[in-house]
Amino acid sequence: MTAPSNSTDAPDRRHALRRRRENNAFALRELSTQDEARARHAELQTALYDLQVHQIELQMQNHELHRSQDALETANARYFDLYDLAPIGYCTLSETGVILQANLHAANLLGLPRSKLHRKPLGQFIHAGDKAALHAMCHAALVHPTLQSCEVRLVQADATELWVNMQAVALQSKLGEPELRLVMKDVSARHGADEALRIAAIAFESQEGIFITDAQGTILRVNHAFTRITGYSEPEVLGQNPRMFSSGQHDAAFYAHLWRTLAQQGAWQGEVYNRRKSAEVYPQWLTIAAVLDDSGQPTHYVANFSDISARKDAEAHIAQLAFYDSLTKLPNRRLLADRLALALASSERHRRLGAVLFVDLDNFKTINDTLSHHVGDLVLVQAAQRLQTCVREGDTVARLGGDEFVVLLESLSEATPDAAAQADVVGQKILAAFAPGFLLGGGHECHSTPSIGVTLFGAAHSENLDDVLQRADIAMYQAKAAGRNTLRFFDPQTQAIISARVALEASLRQALVQDQLVLHYQPQLGPQLRCIGVEALVRWQHPQRGLVPPAEFIPLAEDTGLIVPLGQWVVQAACRQLAAWAQQVCTAHLCIAVNVSPRQFEQPDFLASVLRALDASGAPPKRLKLELTENMLVSNIDDIISKMLALRALGVGLALDDFGTGYSSLSYLKRLPLDQLKIDQSFVRDLISSPADAAIARSIVTLGQSLGMLVVAEGVETAEQHQVLLAMGCDAFQGYQFARPVPVEQLVNL
Ligand code: C2E
Ligand code: MG
Ligand code: MG
Predict the structure, then answer these.
(1) What does the alpha-carbon distance between residue 272 and residue 261 come to, in Å, rounded to a whole number?
(2) Which amino acid residue places its CA nearest to atom 3 of ligand 1?
(3) Which of 507, 531, 634, 525 is nearest to 586 (CA)?
(4) Quick check: 483 pLDDT over 80?
(5) What average pLDDT does this structure show over 510-526?
(6) How far apart are the first and last CA of the chain?
C-alpha cells in the first residue's frame, strides 16, 4: 500500500506550492517596470506548468485513494461473509447477557430472525434447567481471561429443543465496556447418540439375562442378569460355548431345528431347560437373534432369556386347581372324565375290561350337618386316603364333589366274570378300609360307611363316558337300597326302568304340548250327603296306553320340573270349568279342589299364575280350593304363609291334603290360614280294624274343629267307615262309597 506514505507528504508539498505562488506574485510586481510583459509571460508559463504538475499529482492521489477504499470494502465484505455465513453461531452479548449482535447461524439456532434478536436477553432462549449453567459460564468468562464453555439446551419459539455447546470470551467494546463474544455449536446429534448408547447400556443391563457370542458361538459378553440367573460370573463364561449350560434334556434334533430356524429366519425363540452353575435344571424362555453383516452372514448372536420357573410353577398350580379337588387333592370330575375317556379307548384297543366304582358315604350329610363342616372335611380327606390305599398304582381315585368318589380300575381281565371278581375284590377292600372310625382329633372319632356301585366297561363297543358313570351311579343307589355299607353291581333290569323313565319324560313333554291331559272330578259330600264340591284329579289320555293314572307320571313330573307347566294347565282347566258351572243355577255353588305340588307352589310367580287363570276364565275365586301337602311346609314357612294369605285375600280356599302322613309340626299348623284338613285315606282304610288309626282320625277331627277348619275324610269306601267318621264329627266325605273320579260329563248323572 502506497497511499498512506503519499498522504503524509502532501502538507509539505502544499506548503512549497504556496510559497512558490507568493514568490511569483512578488517577482511579477518587481518586473512591472522592464520587460514586465515578457517576464510576466515567462512567470505565467512556469505557474501554468506547476499547476499542471500539481493536477497530475492530485489525480494520482485520487486514484490511490479509490484503490485503497476498494480494498477496504472488499475486506469488509469478506469479514461479513465470514461472520454472517459462518457455519457456527456467533453472537455478542452485553455484560448483562443481552444480545448485541448475532450471525445468521446464531439466529437460526435461536429460531428467530436477526432483526428480532437485538437486545433480547439470551437467557430467554435457554431451557429452564440450563439457565444456571449459562449464567455461570458468562460470569466466569467476564472474570477470567480464558475461554469458558458449557452445554445447554436451547428452546426455540416452536418449543424445539437443541443441545448446543457454548464458548465465551470477554472483550472490550469501542467504548471500553466489557462484552462477551459467544460461539454456539449444535451438538444435538451427539447428544442423541449418547442417549442411544445410554439406553442400549441400560437395556443390556435389563432383568433378562443376555449373552452375546461371535459367529462361532464363543461368548463375548454377558450382563448382570445373566450372572444372577445362571450363577456364572462373566470371567467364568467369556470365551466359552453356551453348550456348557445344557441340561441334557433336549436331543440333537431340538438343537438342529433351533440352528436351522436361526439360519432361515434370523431368530429363534422357545422354552429351553438349562442348567445353572449350581447344577439345578430350570426352564428358561430363550430368544436368539442373529446379527448379520452387509453380505447377510452372521457376525454375532444375541441371546436373551428369562427364568420361567415361577411362571411354570404358577401354571402347574392352575392346572392343579383345574384338574384336582382342592380338599382331598384327588383328581376332580374333569380329570376323571379325561382318564375315563382314555380308559374306554384303551380297553377297546387292548380287549381288556375296566371297572368304575361309584362310592358314596352313607351318613355323610348327618356328619356334616351335626358335627360341622370342618369335621366333614376331615372325614372326606381320610376317606380319600383310604380309597387310595385300596387301588394299584395306575388306577384313579377321583372326587366328584360332596361325598361322592369314583374309583377307576383299568386293565382287568378280558372275561366278564373274572373282571367282575377283580372289581369285587377292590370293592370289598374299600368296605373293609372304612370299617375303622375316622379320627377327628382330641381322641374323638366318627364312623362312616360307603355304598358302592360297580359297573364294568369295555365289553360293549363305542360305550360313552356318561353311560358308564350313570350305570355306576344306579348301582350305587341299588347298594343304598340294599341297606348301605355294601356293594352292588349294575343290574340291567334297573337300567331298563331308568330308560323307561327317560322315555316317559319325553312323552310327558309331548302330552303337555299335544293336550293329552284330562281332568276327572270326584265329588265331596257334606253331612247330609249333598255334593259340596269336587276334587280335580288329572289323568293322561295316552294315545297307546290309554288312561294313565297320576301316580305313574306325577312323581316323574315333580322330579323333572314338568310339574310346573302341568300344574298350571290343571289350574287353568279347573277355572274354565268353574266359570262354566257359574252360568248354571244347579252347579253354581260347586267348588273345585285342585292339587298343588310343593315344587309348583314354591315358584315365585305361582300367585300370579293363579290370578291369570282366574282372570282369563272369569271363574269366581271363592269356588277355587287349593290342596297343599304337609311336605311343602318343611322350609320357608313365613314365605309360604304370606303366599297363602295372599290367596285367601283373593277368596281362594286352602286345604291340607293327606294330613297325618307328613312332617308338619302342630305349632306351624295353627299359623297356617287353612280352611280344610283332609284326613289321609290310609287312616280311613283301617279305621274299623285298627284302634290306633281310629284314634288318629278322631284326633285329626278334634284338632281341625278346634282350629276352626272343615275336616274332610278321603278314601271312604264303606258305609261303616262313613258312619264312624260321621260319629267322630267329620264334616265332609270323599270316596268310592259315594263316587269315583269321573269325566265332567258323567258328573252330571251323579
Ligand atoms: P290325592 O290328592 O290324595 O287324591 C286322592 C286320590 O285318592 C285320588 O287318586 C283318588 O282317585 C283316590 N281315591 C278317591 N277315593 C278313593 C277311595 O275310596 N279308595 C281309594 N283307594 N282311593 C280313592 P288319583 O286320582 O290316582 O290321584 C293320586 C294322587 O295324584 C292324588 O292324591 C294327588 O296327590 C295326585 N294328583 C292327582 N291329580 C293331581 C294334580 O292335578 N296335580 C297334582 N299336583 N297332583 C295330582
Ligand atoms: Mg288331593
Ligand atoms: Mg289325598
Answers:
(1) 15
(2) 658
(3) 531
(4) yes
(5) 95
(6) 158
What is the DSSP secondary-structure string of 576-589?
HHHHHHHTSTTTTT
Query: H or E element: which one contains 355?
Result: strand 354-361
Instruction: Report the nearest-CA residue for atom 21 of ligand 1.
Output: 715
Ligand minimally distant from the alpha carbon of residue 740:
1
Q: Which protein residue has the closest C-alpha to ligand 1 atom 20?
A: 715
Q: Tell me: the pLDDT tens digits for 291-327?
A: 999 898 999 999 999 999 998 888 888 888 889 999 9
Backbone angles phi, psi at 533, to 5 degrees: 175, -175
- Kindly state if the Cβ of 554 falls inside 6 Å of ligand 1: yes
630 touches ligand 1 (CB under 6 Å): no
The enclosing H or E element of 430 equals helix 416-433
| Substitution site in 595, 596, 628, 725 for ligand 1 pocket (most atoms within 8 Å of beta carbon) | 595
Could you give the C-alpha distances from 685 to 354, 358, 521, 694, 696, in angstroms and in order? 52, 42, 21, 10, 12
The closest ligand to the CA of 661 turns out to be 3
Q: Please work out whether the CB of residue 597 comes within 6 Å of at least one atom of ligand 1.
A: yes
Look up residue 68 and give its three cell numbers: 485503497
- pLDDT for position 5: 44
SS3 category, 657 = strand
Contact 347, 412 (CB under 8 A): no
pLDDT at 2: 39
**Contacting residues for 719 by C-beta, under 8 A, at least 6 apart:** 737
Nearest to 704 by CA among 680, 670, 681, 735: 670
Partners of 558 in beta bridges: none
Q: Is the CB of 715 under 6 A from ligand 1?
A: yes
User: Would the CB of 538 count as within 6 Å of ligand 1?
Assistant: yes
How sure is the predictor about 421, in pLDDT bands with cuts at 50, 70 and 90? confident
Query: How far apart are alpha carbons 232 and 276 in whole angstroms?
Result: 8
Determine the pLDDT at residue 1: 38
Cell of 266: 434370523
Ligand 1 pocket, residue 595 CB under 6 Å: yes
C-alpha pair distances (Å), 70 with each of 59, 73, 79: 17, 5, 14
Other C-beta atoms closer than 10 Å to the C-beta of 494 total 16
Q: Quick check: 123 and 131 in contact, CB under 8 A?
A: yes
Is any atom of ligand 1 closer than 6 Å to the C-beta of 522? yes
* Three-class DSSP category at 707: coil
Protein residue closest via CA to atom 25 of ligand 1: 537
CA 180/CA 164 separation, integer angstroms: 17
DSSP 35: S
In what side-by-side order are the strands of the sheet with 178-186?
99-102, 89-94, 178-186, 161-172, 148-155
| Residue 478: pLDDT over 80 | yes
Q: Which residues face 628 on adjacent strands?
A: 656
Q: Report whether 151 contacts 164 (CB < 8 A).
A: yes
Q: Which atom belonging to ligand 1 lies closest to the Cα atom of 519?
A: 41
Average pLDDT, the chain: 90
The angle that helices 465-481 and 492-513 make with each other, rounded to 10 degrees, is 110
Closest CA to 678 of 706, 640, 716, 650: 716
Q: How confident is the model at residue 23 (pLDDT cuts 50, 70, 90)?
A: confident
DSSP secondary structure letters along 133-163: HHHHHHHHHHHSSS-EEEEEEEE-TT--EEE
Please identify, by atom number, the ligand 1 atom nearest to the C-alpha of residue 678: 3
d(CA 568, CA 599): 12
